[in-house]
From TrEMBL:
Residue stretches making up the Guanylate kinase-like domain: 8-186
Pfam families linked: Guanylate_kin
Primary localization class, coarse: cytoplasm
MF annotations from Gene Ontology: ATP binding; GMP kinase activity
EC number per UniProt: 2.7.4.8
Keyword set, alphabetical order: ATP-binding, Cytoplasm, Kinase, Nucleotide-binding, Transferase
Species this protein is from: Leptothrix cholodnii (strain ATCC 51168 / LMG 8142 / SP-6)
PROSITE patterns associated with the record: GUANYLATE_KINASE_1 (PS00856), GUANYLATE_KINASE_2 (PS50052)
Catalytic reaction list: GMP + ATP = GDP + ADP
Top-level taxon of the source organism: Bacteria
First-tier enzyme category under EC: transferase
Family indicated by similarity: Belongs to the guanylate kinase family.
Descriptive protein name: Guanylate kinase
SMART domains linked to this entry: GuKc
Name of encoding gene: gmk
């Protein structure tokens, strides 16, 4: 089966660090039992509450490089000085089984995925302002001061890529942004259902070809 023919939908969510991507995707998953998030591999060290296999698969750089050499990744990128990648194993089987998958990855990975899988829906989350982005990074309290400053510098470059995405969601009020995300996921499901073999049961009931 070619990747274009996978019956599951693929959603890719990117954002500058601190914009609220992880919080929004977590809330979206709680509302939508058909969505699964893909667990990426990274060479970054785990933060306080993070667990191996839950937020990420935390692996040393030589192991990550070996996976690249074996062609194990759909995409990978260096972000804020660490390596991150989406393994084929993490998403291929699910998409083939008709499950919808969300990737929480950076813009470089998102653009690689769009090349491989043009039906992927690319969503970029923007913070309402630079000062609010800094506040959120500070409030989260997980990163050292110089790490936050590096992320603020990188954020300028990252948001410039938003124009290559299919949708932009501004995360000012959390509930509004969550509603926007839900709407995008729902609308894309309805759109793709009409284009694919995995069509809603009503198509058969109405004998639509
Ligand atoms: N290309 C790519 N980027 C990823 C992947 N997993 C995570 N990222 C991105 O790496 C960046 C840093 O993530 P993380 O260290 O968790 O920090 P956070 O964004 O501040 O929570 C974010 O932009 C993530 O979306 C992946 O598998 N591939
Ligand atoms: N709409 C919002 N208003 C205020 N704070 C928010 C909002 N969305 C997320 N946050 C907070 O901002 C911080 C960064 O969010 P997080 O989801 O970790 O971002 P990301 O995954 O994009 O790095 C967290 O402390 C989170 O609770």
């Amino acid at each position: 089966m070619k990747i274009m023919e996978f019956p599951g939908n693929l959603y890719v969510v990117a954002a500058p660090s601190g914009a609220g991507k992880s919080s929004l995707v977590k809330a979206l998953l709680e509302l939508d039992a058909r969505l699964m998030v893909s667990v990426s591999h990274t060479t970054r060290k785990p933060r306080g509450q993070e667990q191996d296999g839950r937020e990420y698969w935390f692996i040393p750089e030589p192991a990550f490089r070996a996976m690249i050499a074996h062609g194990d990744f759909f995409e990978w990128a260096e972000v804020h000085g660490n390596l991150y990648g989406t393994s084929r194993a993490a998403i291929e089987a699910r998409l083939k089984a008709g499950e919808d998958v969300v990737l929480e990855i950076d813009f470089q990975g998102a653009l690689q995925i769009k090349q491989l899988f043009p039906m992927a829906v690319l969503i970029f989350i923007l913070p309402p302002s630079w000062s609010e982005l800094r506040q959120r990074l500070l409030r989260r309290g997980e990163d050292a001061g110089e790490v936050i400053e590096q992320r603020m510098v990188n954020a300028r470059h990252e948001v410039a890529q938003a124009r290559h995405f299919d949708y932009i969601v501004v995360n000012a009020l959390f509930e509004t942004a969550l509603f926007d995300l839900k709407t995008i996921v729902h609308a894309q499901r309805l759109k793709y259902a009409a284009q694919r073999r995995s069509r809603p049961a009503v198509f058969d009931a109405l004998q639509l070809s």
